[in-house]
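Hey, quick one: can you model this chain's 3D structure?
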Amino acid sequence: SYYLTGDVYAVIINAGNVTLDLNGFAVRITNNSTPVSIGSSAPANNVTIRNGFVVGPGVRTPTGTNPWEATYAGSFGYGIYVKSAAQSVHLENITISGFLSGIVCEASTEFSSARIQISHCMVRDCSGGGLDVRNAEIRDTTVQTCGGTGITANLSTLEKVIVERSGGTGIYGS
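Sure thing. Here's the predicted structure for all 174 residues.
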């Protein structure tokens, strides 16, 4: 188990049975890389990240009368990227903003008990989609003012989710 005592610029988890409490602090990035990566070079099972912020370089500028009409500058990476080598990842009480996509999970395409769990999170102000996940459980999560599809979820369960002001489809998946 680990916890932050201040803001950091990147978190890479390539081990199993890890809990990271952001402790109200932020993983901040000023360039176009991915600040939080799980399982990028080795399997990472049973990982939990909770209680903080993931903030990217993107800036959203409204351009019309509708709240979804906007331009986005500086937002290219993913806020949290879960590679296919990761299973049983839990993301809880995290606010993600200013990226191309907030959370991208390449989890197994099989419906299994080793699912990605996203709960009490908010994804906002992303130039592309908010969430792009496979084999996930998403609960009590909000996606706001994203330029593309709010939530793309395949082989997933959604409960009490809100998508507001999406520039594309609200929720899409199989």
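One thing worth noting: The CA atoms of residues 37 and 81 lie 5 Å apart.
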